[in-house]
Amino acid sequence: MAGIGERIIIDPKIMGGKPVIKGTRIPVYFILELIANGWTIDDILKEYPHLTREDVLAAVRYAARVLREEIVVKA
Fold first, then answer.
1. Does the residue 21 lie in any domain?
2. Is 50 exposed, middle or buried (0-12, 13-18, 19+ CB in 10 A)?
3. Are 53 and 40 in contact (CB under 8 A)?
4. Using CA atoms, how far apart are residues 34 and 13, in angstroms rounded to an integer?
5. For residue 22, what are the domain limits?
6. For 8-52, what is each residue's pLDDT tens digit?
7. Three-class SS string for the chain?
8. Cα dihedral sign for 18, 22, 25, 29?
């Protein structure tokens, strides 16, 4: 299991190795999809009370870091 910070983990045994919120099966991409569809952090916390504000923000930070480090190859 590779730890990504304190709140995001990658484990091949959980969700096929997708990054998830630690202690859950909620993938980072799902949190981002909710936000992209207009959900606020408060909306997410109401629907998923076992998550914390820090969990949601960690998912956003993780995605930003992945995109920042992405390498673009021009054809």
1. yes
2. exposed
3. no
4. 24
5. 2-69
6. 999 999 999 999 999 999 999 999 999 999 999 999 999 999 999
7. CEEECCCEEECCCCHHHCCEECCCCCEHHHHHHHHHCCCCHHHHHHHCCCCCHHHHHHHHHHHHHHHHHCCCCCC
8. negative
Q: Residue 35 corresponds to which tokens in the numbers above? A: 């936000």
Strand partners, 9: 3, 20
Q: Residue 57's domain is classified under what CATH number?
A: 1.10.10.10
Question: Global pTM?
Answer: 0.86
- Tokens for 3? 């730890």
User: Residue 74: inside a domain, yes or no?
Assistant: no
